[in-house]
Amino acid sequence: MIKTLIRNMLLVNFRSTVQSRKSLYIRIIGVIYFFSLYFIFIEDFIRFLYGNFGGDKSLALIMNMMFMVSSILIFILSFMPIVSMFFFSTDITSYFHLPIKNRDLIISKLFILFLSEFLLLLLLYTPIIWYIGIIHHPPLIFYFVVVAIIATIPIIPNSINMLIIMLGMRIISMNKRKFDFYKKLFTFFVAIIGLATTFFFIQKYQFINHIFEKLTWNITDTYYYPPSILINYIFHHLEHINMIMIIIISYLVVSYLFLYISICLGAKIYTYNSSTQRKRKSHPKLNDHSIHLHTRKEVQSLIIQEFKMLFRRPVLFIKGLIGSILLPFLCILVFILNKQLEGIQFFIENHLTLSFILLVGFSISTIGWNPIAISSFSREKNNLFIKSVLPISERNILLSKIITSWVIFSPTILLYCYMIYEFLNVPVVALFLWLILSVLISLNGVLICVIFDIVFPIFLWTDEQQLFKGRTAITSFHVVNSLFVGLVCLVGITVSKYLSSNLYFISIFYIALLLLTLSISIKYLYNRCNSILEKLIKNYRIIK
Amino acid sequence: MLNIQGITKHYDKMENAVDNLTLRVLPGEIFGFLGPNGAGKSTTIKLITGMHTLDSGTITINQFDIKLDTIKAKQNLGYVPDTPNFFLHLKGIEYLNFLKDVYAIPSEKCEQTIKTLATKFNMLHALDDFIQNYSHGMRKKILIIGSLLHDPKVWVLDEPLNGLDPNAVFILKELMREHADKGNAVLFSTHMLETAENTCDKIVIIKHGVKIFDGVMQEVKHKMKSEVSLEKLFMELTKNDKDIN
């Protein structure tokens, strides 16, 4: 039974993740791309630690940090998915009328969760293990032990979460509406704690070295963490091999025993009540005389409808909001707390053109892509069918989407302007040029994102949540965007090196480049707007 | 009023979903569009509404070509889709207000129409709620109300009776008759042969995208009295070739 369940769940998960062969390829390319970047980053990180702390201490620090961070993150981040998985997922109802034991269902669901977390951890740990292999040449058994430890990391945090949730759900009667509310509250608190921690570190420690010194003090001394034991295994494996193996095996045995007990307990206490699914409230009463209609122009009405769609889909909106408004706020706070500001200002004064180019690159990576625009058509799903029947021109539909996405990003541009003016001490002309460029960059970003959404409608977003999780479209767009940022910076640096390093020249060059991209994008969109809706309707099939 | 002339549509490399179909719906007529599953009914309706582009042939709505005069043609069209999951994040009244703006309907007239239709369908109480909180039938009702706001010359309904309660079915049939009697054309697809028998002035049966029967209901009824029921006629016409062999 468990095998059948797992096979079925894997198939459903795989097919919902990979909608087509094309989307599979792009996801693979995306993973390889980001994994390569991470690989390079880890190499630098390890070299930095080796330079500062030496061999075994650095390794212990990295491994223990990874172990601690991954355990804590899994504990925090898997809480809501487990609630959803056992109580609110759409597939759960389809299992409950079948003769399946609670225990089998729990094992299968946990297996899927563990598998996805294991694959993620494996990706995170692989570069570290790779460098350990290159530097220390540990015996072959080391790799098997490390994989076993990685596979065991998700067990205890997830089991604890599962038991807390199952017990909690027996006590609290929670429907889908309440769950959605708590989920938002939970996300908000996690974000606040994350921000508070970041600020604490920024305020407390001026140099990264200090942070690592502090961490080395605390983390390398935790001798009984499995990674510490492993590191000992690398350096002193000939002396304490038996003792080390016993400790590691004990860790594995304790974890799996804990899992077994959790499954047995979970099977006893797990109850699913379909009435906890979304409950319909009674309709708010509308007075016979209270029908108030407004009269607006077509485009105006379309824009208002776009805004309503955005604000009433908080997950999507929060994603856009975090991307746009929170980041400049974060930058401003970092500048307020950073005591190295004078150094940065000095660098800018001496390298104005280079700073300007880097600032443009930063702008493209932040406001030059737009999560609201990238999902402008996808999030409509069924609504497209109705819109295509209404006497609305495709141009107006496009215009409303472009304006909506652009307007949302305007406070961000102003916030960045304030940040540059207040902290970076740049000349007013440079600030003005950057403002013009930002307006163009954000419009360009909106257009590119809309085109992306139209050209690749194959990347279906069957659920808005998936946008938040970062699906194929977002992954592939990030790849394209990061390459675009690199290219723009490279072109700017090349121009400044070989043509002119004058700030005005570089700015005019960028403005011309952006105007060119804008005109091409607009021309492309307007030329194709007749076939846009039909193409999208073909791909976004009606969701029943 | 609605003139379909030799239309053809195929998807990718598959055989024609609609093959050289010609229909004419005159003012004052209710036209029943019948056929087995996958016969091409919904594709034809999507071609009429402009959702799909034609491979060949022409469709005119109140003399406006859907391909050449798209916006004007759509202004004369009211459409009720088979699946009612649209604009779920809007309130019922907001959806109707949106349609009012799109069709540029005067406020007073629109208010009056909404009140009349919402009262008929017992939807007045729910207009201020989000469409996502509506039941399947209520969603369908709000779409029906929306499709009639601008008093369209051609009213196209794709399987409108599915999911409606008996009261709503009765009201919808009455509305279709009233709308046709005002000199407009009504075309609807259905699998309910009894409803088609009672409501339609004309019926057409299609199979594999090809018209296999086209007749005035009076004639069909006359024929049925002496020979077969509409159900039997439908079964006979849509029987699989394999079965016949």
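qc> The CA atoms of residues 16 and 147 of chain B lie 29 Å apart.
qc> done
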